[in-house]
Design the sequence.
């Protein structure tokens, strides 16, 4: 399989794990020391770039922090997380930006359709995403997921399944 | 609405030990329109911070009530506010959230205004065959009142309001507790997050002072902190809430004239605050008592539209009501200038985790407001029972804790963390009622 096909397969696997709420499978796609980052915007055209000095919408350093979110989503103790929304993630425009045997840098566009069953309300979050994939144990894993959320006026809330 | 109907929305009988608010306060379109006209467009509202317009001709745009406003520092250094609407046809003249501009030229018919809002050009004026009546009118952008208290900018669309200092009264001390955290002042960190929720704006006013909800609304957040502590030991005491059950905690509230309110509580983990590292310097500058209060949990509402929540981190949030059942919120992270890079990063992570609508706590608050708004369609829930905790201990004037700050609120109450005082809502609703009745 070509590097592009392998990148596609991983991105689709990520989207499917989110849509099917297979959280352990989703977590397993990330490296232990991954960075999951959704920057905020400084103004109409400029996203923040340095999470040490500027605000992010989500900044999770390491898989353990992603696992905390999964625990909150599945634990039944967050009124915002229940009942679960139904989601359909559409991944497109996948492009290989850099490729070596050890790492791939992949750009894509995500449209994440979220249906809030309790409110009978739906929303599409759209973002430009950049993944850095590294090879671990002969499989690609996500070392960095950077999602630039373009419609950042959030209806009530946003979580990892909205991106 | 008749005045008696509005006054009847608040059942305020202290002698009987009763305080209730009617559900129509949250669901009536007539009430909402009156709130906009009398409270948001008829009095002082928070607009932004002086540090957002540091240089001549810097501006930001906002809304006061429903109306578009530009706040701008003129070439003379004075910060002014004016309506963002061309005098010709009402088009917006300023299109950006923030920026620097010596002039604003309307892109419809080309009328131009300087950075003080004065008209400096009407396209083809001479050729326009205008009447003397036209020339007799002002063509400047409509001015609004704008005053600055220690870097906090307030705007009133109604020129006939008391001076800002009088409006703030002793509530100003709680703004001092923010402004004085660094000898160099405070700064706004880049990156804001805006969200909407489908419920009334006053749920946000209440929730910020609501101690009672914390353990039942945020168990998932508490679980996350407990999980980190189990894994990392004491090293995980990274937020104010990490050990909130472990020590005897005093929680109190104060209500001030003009609807302002403050919830406060002693802090079990002051060392988690970025400010802790500079405590000696701060104490020397503002005194031991105020320095200690800076490390306390303090959630305040400067009525009606700005809140400062200093618990896990320091958030400034601006409330913009859009409809009886729809509210927009914008959150900003405030920080003391000059803090260490490590303290700054910790502040930001705590901020995002607790305050963001994409974090581990705020979505549960906003979802609860929406559940209130939905549940309130049940007609028989007309009178809420959510305003009477703490009524047995609330006192007129200041308690000894207010004395530490040298201020005199209208009412004060204090007790343990589990008292979950609700008298903090009384002052805002009394003022709300009085303003609506006067404006009806």
Sequence:
């Amino acid at each position: 399989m070509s590097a592009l096909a392998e990148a596609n397969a991983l991105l689709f696997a990520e989207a499917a794990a989110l849509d099917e709420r297979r959280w352990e499978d989703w977590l397993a796609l990330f490296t232990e020391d991954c960075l999951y980052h959704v920057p905020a915007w400084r103004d109409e055209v400029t996203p923040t770039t340095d999470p040490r000095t500027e605000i992010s919408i989500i900044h999770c350093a390491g898989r353990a922090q992603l696992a905390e979110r999964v625990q909150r989503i599945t634990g039944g103790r967050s009124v915002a997380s229940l009942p679960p929304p139904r989601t359909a993630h559409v991944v497109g425009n996948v492009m290989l930006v850099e490729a070596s045997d050890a790492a791939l840098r992949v750009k894509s566009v995500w449209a994440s359709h979220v249906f809030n069953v309790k409110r009978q309300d739906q929303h599409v979050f759209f973002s430009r995403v950049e993944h850095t994939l590294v090879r671990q144990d002969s499989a690609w894993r996500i070392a960095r997921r950077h999602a630039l959320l373009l419609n950042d006026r959030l209806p009530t809330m946003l979580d990892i399944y909205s991106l | 609405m008749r005045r008696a109907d509005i006054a009847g929305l608040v059942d305020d009988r202290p002698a009987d030990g009763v305080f209730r608010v009617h559900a129509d306060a949250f669901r009536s379109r007539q009430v909402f329109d009156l709130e906009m006209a009398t409270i948001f467009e008829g009095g002082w509202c928070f607009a932004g911070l002086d540090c957002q317009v540091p240089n001549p001709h810097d501006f930001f745009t906002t809304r006061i009530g429903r109306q578009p406003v530009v706040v701008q520092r003129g070439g003379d250094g004075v910060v002014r506010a004016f309506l963002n609407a061309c005098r010709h046809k009402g088009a917006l003249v300023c299109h950006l959230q923030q920026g620097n501009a010596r002039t604003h030229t309307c892109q419809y018919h080309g009328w131009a205004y300087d950075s003080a809002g004065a008209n400096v050009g009407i396209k083809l004026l001479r050729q326009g065959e205008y009447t003397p009546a036209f020339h007799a009118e002002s063509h400047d952008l409509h001015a609004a009142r704008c005053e600055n208290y220690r870097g906090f900018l307030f705007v009133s669309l109604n020129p006939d309001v008391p001076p800002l200092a009088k409006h703030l009264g002793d509530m100003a001390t709680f703004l001092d507790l923010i402004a004085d955290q660094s000898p160099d002042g405070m700064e706004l960190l880049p990156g804001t997050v805006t969200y909407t929720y489908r419920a009334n704006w006053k749920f946000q006013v209440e929730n910020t002072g609501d101690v009672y909800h914390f353990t039942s609304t945020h168990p998932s957040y508490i679980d996350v902190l407990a999980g980190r502590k189990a894994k990392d030991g004491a090293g995980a005491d990274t937020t104010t809430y990490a050990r909130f059950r472990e020590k005897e905690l005093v929680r109190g509230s104060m209500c001030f004239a003009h609807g302002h309110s403050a919830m406060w509580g002693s802090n079990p983990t002051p060392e988690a605050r970025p400010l802790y590292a500079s405590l000696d310097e701060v104490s020397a500058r503002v005194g031991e008592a105020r320095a200690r209060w800076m490390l306390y949990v303090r959630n305040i509402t400067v009525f009606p539209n700005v809140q400062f929540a200093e618990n896990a981190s320091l958030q400034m949030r601006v409330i913009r009501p859009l409809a009886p059942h729809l509210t927009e919120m914008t959150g900003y992270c405030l920080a003391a200038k000059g803090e260490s890079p490590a303290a700054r990063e910790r502040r930001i992570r705590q901020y995002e985790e607790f305050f963001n609508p994409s974090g581990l706590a705020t979505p549960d608050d906003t979802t609860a407001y929406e559940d209130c708004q939905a549940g309130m369609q049940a007609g028989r829930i007309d009178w809420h029972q959510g305003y009477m905790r703490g009524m047995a201990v609330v006192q007129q004037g200041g308690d000894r804790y207010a004395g530490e700050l040298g201020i005199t609120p209208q009412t004060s109450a204090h007790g343990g963390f589990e008292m979950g005082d609700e008298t903090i809502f009384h002052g805002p609703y009394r003022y709300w009622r009085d303003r609506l009745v006067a404006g009806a």
In short: Residues 32 and 352 of chain B are 31 Å apart (CA to CA). Chain B has two domains: 44-160, 169-439. The radius of gyration of chain B is 23 Å.
